[in-house]
Amino acid sequence: MTKFPNDFLWGGATAANQLEGAYDEDGKGLSIADALPGGPERFSIVNQANFDWKIDTTKYKYPNHKGIDHYHRYQEDIKLFAEMGFKCYRFSIAWSRVFPNGDDKEPNEAGLKFYDRLIDECLKYKIEPVITISHYEMPLNLVTEYGGWKNRQLIDFYENYASVVLNRYAKKVKYWMTFNEINSALHFPVMGQGLVKSNGADEKKNIYQAWHNQFVAGAKAVKIAHEIRPDLMIGCMLLYATTYAYDSNPANQLAALKENQAFNQFCGDVQVRGTYPAYTESVMNRYGFSFKDLDVTADDLKVLKENPVDYIGFSYYMSTAINVTDKSLETANGNLVGGVKNPFLKASDWGWQIDPTGLRIALNELYNRYQKPVFVVENGLGAVDKPDENNFVQDDYRISYLRKHIQAIAGALEDGVDVMGYTPWGCIDLVSASTGQMSKRYGFIYVDLDDEGHGSLNRYKKASFNWYQKVIETNGEQL
Prior knowledge:
Layout (H helix, E strand, L loop, with lengths): L8 E5 L2 H4 L22 H5 L23 H15 L3 E5 L2 H4 L10 H16 L3 E7 L6 H4 L8 H17 L5 E5 L10 H4 L10 H25 L4 E7 L3 E3 L4 H24 L6 H7 L11 H9 L5 E4 L4 E3 L8 E2 L6 E2 L5 E2 L5 E2 L1 H15 L3 E5 L17 H19 L4 E4 L22 E3 L11 E3 L1 H11 L6
C-alpha cells in the first residue's frame, strides 16, 4: 500500500453545537441548532409550514442544549485525543458564543476566552487545530430578524465575526474552513442557510442567493486570513456524495452529470476557481430563474475572483445512484441526499450506503478538477453501539468501515492525489445532526448518555480507540 506523507494530518472532527452543550452559559446566544428538536423526526418537524423557531420543551427534547458537556470537559476529551495520537483536531467555533445575536457591535469576551483555552489545550499536546468558522450553528437572531443567508446584510455580520476570530487565533491556528457542507442547502437549507418554509426555503432562487452571499462572505474571510498570515490555509467544505448513473442508459448518465454539477460541483467551482461555472445558467433555469435575477454586484465578483480558497475540505459518508428511467426502484437514505438503492452496496443501520471505493473516486474527481489539496474532514459510521458490563464497545464494524476508507485514501495517494489529512467524524460520541440522537454513534470514545438525556456522561474507550491509535502511530501502515 502507498505510504502516507510524513506530515499527513491524522485526527478527528466534531462541531460545537453537537458536543459543547452549555447552550446559554457565559453570554452565549441562541443558535439555530438550539432551536432544532431532537429525534429522528427533526427534519419533518422543521419542514412543517408552521415551524417558527420557538423552543418548546413541553413538546420536544433539545439534546444540543446539553451535548456531551464538552464545554466543561474539554480538557478530558483533548487528553483522550492526544492519547490516540491526533496530529490535528477539527472543531468549530460557535458563532453565537462570540456574537450572541450575530449583529452585535462587540464580541462576547467570555466566549472568546473559551476558545483561547480550547486551542491552547490542543497545542499543549501538539495537536493542530482545524477550525470551521460556521458549522450549522448561525445565531438564531440572524434568522428570525433578518431571514437567514438570503439577506445580504449577513455578509457584513459574518465578515465581522470572521475578522474577530481570525485576528484572535491566526497566530496559533493555521488551518481553517469557511462554511460546513455549504452545498447541503440544495436539498436542506435550514442548517446551512437558516431557511425554512416560512422564510423562503421552497423557492430555489433564495437558496442560490443565500449561497452567493455566503460565497462573498467566505471570500472576504479568505482575504482577511491571508492579510493576517500569508501561510494560513483556509478552505471551503463540501458534502461530497460520489454520484453514479444507475446503468449505462444515456438518460441516466446525463442525469448523473446534471446532479453532479448541481450538487457536488457548483459550490466548489465558485469558491475554488473564483468564478461562476459555465453551467450556472443551465442549473438555475432548471429551477425557473436566471442568474440575472440574483442580487450580484461587480464588487462581489471581484472579491470572489481575487480570494479563492487554499484547499477543499469535504465530508464523505456514502455514494448515491441516479435513475430517471425506472421510477419503481427502491430509494436509499443518505447524508441529506438520497438516490436509488445501489444493488452492489451494503448500508449502515441508518440506511446510508457504504462505499469506500466512492471515496477514492471523490478524491480523484476533486483533485483533478481543482488541482488544490484535498482534506477528508468527515467520514465515519453511525451505528448502534452496545457496551458490555464494563462499558466497553467491541466496534469491529466501525474498524472495518474506517479501515476500508483509509485504504481508499491510500489508493488516491497512489493515483497522485494531494491529500492533506483525515479526520473521522464524531471522534467522540456526540448528538447526531441528522437525527438529534445520541444512539447514532460515530466515536472512538463512548459517552454514557442516551436519547432521553440520561447518563453519567463518563467517557470510555471503544475497541476502535486502540485500533486508530495504532493507525496513527504507524502512519497508516498498520490497519
